[in-house]
Amino acid sequence: MNKFISIFFMLIPxxxxxxxxxDSSHIVSIGEVRYFGDVENDADLFSIGxxxxxxxxxxxxxxxxxxxxxxxxxxxxxxxxFMFPTSNLCASGDILFYLENNWDGLWLLGGVDSYLxxxxxxxQAILKYPLTYGSSFTSKWEIDTxxxxxxxxxxxxxIIRYKLDSTENNYVDGWGTLKLPMGDYDALRMKKNITSTDxxxxxxxxxxxxxxxxxxxFSPDSIWVNIGDTVFFNTGGYHNAVQVDSTTWTNQDTxxxxxFFFPGNATANQYIIIDTNINHTNGIIYYxxxxxxxxxxxxxxxxxxxxxWSLIYNSDxxxxxxxxxxxxxxxxxxxxxxxxxxxxxxxxxxxxxxxxQISNINNINNNITVYPNPVSEKLFINCPxxxxxxLIKNIIGQIIIETSFTNIIDIRKIKNGIYFIEIYExxxxxxxxxxxxxx
Length: 439
Description:
The strands form 5 sheets. Strands 1, 2, 3, 4, 5, 6, 7, 8, 9, 10, 20, 21 and 22 form a 13-stranded mixed β-sheet that branches. This protein has a 5-stranded mixed β-sheet with strand order 13-19-18-15-16. The protein is built from 2 helices and 29 strands. The radius of gyration is 31 Å and the shape is elongated. The N terminus is likely disordered. Helix content is about 5%, strand content about 50%.
């Protein structure tokens, strides 16, 4: 019996550290805030450690080089909820991420970026439940979004199109103890092998072109058009415009090929939009005026290829990263993320950290403090100098408050979320700082 008791007490330390299981109950709830630190310059000083059971991954000496935070909002209280009707969580940082957390996984539905605007994607798994040691799943990310070009200074490129095709193979390769500056946590480690192709395309704005009539001619009677352009036919009077095939056009005949037919009365809906499905012959659209085709009243639209987009950038690649997750109430998101470079060294680390009450990370004038942060009712500003005005903006740059300088701002009527406060002295920016409003 004494031998049995001795063995039992020897096993207690091993039994106290056990592998965990992550499910939907371990994800943050609406109203919660998490704080993160980023490490890049010193990331290669740390090791990701080993795979397998009962591991210890020591990142307790991490010091944040940059800091930020995420507040979890009710997506129904945000401006873009109509685009993501099944979302039940919205993670608000520099980008709004719309998430769905349900019994089988944590899913990303899309986001809203201050430059790109809304970015809907096909629903993709961030996590699959139950997540435990040995779990694996695959996610395929496909993004195809367009925006007005105010980023890349290339003449003739008015619209940017960004495309991403990525496959992530996720495998939980270890469990054990994760040591962070904020404490020790039972954790799972998930290995992520990623292959991706991303590309940037550009094109000019689609144009609107009007075909008029001038005597017994279309004016202009031949013109180059791009995919996406709109062509209006202002026939009027006793002329019409009927699409025909190339042989009919060459012979100055009048038999329609089943394409567009615009009568001899100018109306607002007499137009075609050039797209890849439009009826054409070898990239040329032929048309005639039926009453006057024999007199040479014919026209052509030459299509500048079937793809109006010019490739600006393309990259194929693979990458490797690791996520650590815990079932502890402090967690709710990944507690640590580490990206690995081509040489096997840690290239970048993002880790969960304790709240920082007063944040002046982005202050231009370090003598100005803005507090408390997070704030629920009133925001206080300590400022030794003379400032002129204050702006508070949301994450997509919309001005929520604009006021002359004051030491106290009442924010009780502003919705929960992440905002930016800008303090100016004349036209000069003194402070730009992120604040969290949490009632």
